[in-house]
């Protein structure tokens, strides 16, 4: 029997190496007054920004730009909205990593409002966004967050009372997601590693989520299959290989689609609380915690007996995929779960993922992190001591 499920809409997706020029024809469908939200320097250094601006001038399109360095904060979004609110924009285009894509998404959502984004953030404000926005196109230059396919923009305020919360509405899904793996080739190895593990985390957490469906399972499985073949090679010797980059870009895109429909588990619960308290890249948190979190989930699923069989089997199916073995009804779930855990531990070392301690997190901080951490879509309940162990093992 196929279980009941709901599936959210996705952007109009254009995927493929060399597809960036498609952007210029899409712009014509919206108007001639455009805001570009870009990263701090990488797009300009790659020469792509000159290519884009020259084409805008050739087509007599009036455009503005704003650079985003780091994760978007409420202040950054509020100031950007104030600056561009009176420009009568027809379209906003975000070109960059997940933070840039989220910033563009937030600006497009808030430019029609007259108050702070803080008032609309989940768990922070007291208002609900109505979904009205300026049309938005998302063009990722990293393979990590999948934000080009999601309906939320993550906004961060770091500090003792800090937070990492979402502005969310079904209408905030980008109108178009243009995914060109050629834009990712210049991504540095450290960012490639952290972003790749972030995307893999999203695929795996969505796959084992209690909210998963046959549709999200099929998509997540296909994304994992592409990424597991290329995770290490694209970090090391295939950084300029378009096939490898395409596989990672595909996995990242799919991770955004499945997280929007199945939700995420303990890794992203921890990433939210840690990201609000410490200035640490989101992908680094996810990547460095994935193996330990998976190990703890499997341990607890094994302990609850029959109630944990479904979750264990899903982890085992991915473990079997890792070693190119298809699903079998009588498969040894324990063995293939261990294969998955060992692979994630090996990747953590091979990708040189930073520990939490590198960013100033100490055992003294663990208690406050745990108190702020949610378990919304984890496949098994974890108690505070379990969560503490996950964190401590990566300090």
In a few lines, what is going on in this structure?
The chain is an alpha/beta fold. The chain has helices spanning 22-27, 42-46, 48-58, 74-84, 98-110, 189-208, 214-235, 242-262, 266-277, 282-303, 309-322, 333-350, 366-371, 384-392; strands at 12-15, 33-39, 62-68, 91-96, 136-140, 152-157, 163-168, 176-179.
Characterise this structure.
Helix content is 48%, strand content 11%. The chain is of the alpha/beta class and 395 residues long. The chain folds into 2 domains: 12-184, 3-Layer(aba) Sandwich (Rossmann fold); 189-392, Dehydroquinate synthase-like - alpha domain (Dehydroquinate synthase-like, alpha domain), CATH 1.20.1090. The chain has a 6-stranded parallel sheet with strand order 1-8-5-4-2-3, sandwiched between helices. A two-stranded antiparallel sheet has the order 6-7. Strand 4, helix 5 and strand 5 (136-140) form a beta-alpha-beta unit. Helix 4 crosses helix 5, helix 6 packs parallel to helix 10 and helix 7 packs antiparallel against helix 8. The longest helix has 22 residues, at 214-235. The mean pLDDT is 94.
Helix content range of the residues, please?
40-55%
- Give the helix/strand class: alpha/beta
At the first level of CATH, the class of the largest domain is Mainly Alpha
CATH fold-level name of the largest domain: Dehydroquinate synthase-like, alpha domain
Main sheet: strands, sense, barrel: 6 strands, parallel
Strand order of the largest sheet: 1-8-5-4-2-3
Total individual domains: 2
Radius of gyration: 20 Å
Please count the beta strands (DSSP E, at least 2 residues each).
8
CATH superfamily of the largest domain: Dehydroquinate synthase-like - alpha domain
Global morphology? globular
- In what range is the share of β-strand residues? 5-15%
- What is the count of DSSP helices, taking H or I runs of 4+ residues? 14
Mean pLDDT: 94
Order of helices and strands: EHEHHEHEHEEEEHHHHHHHHH
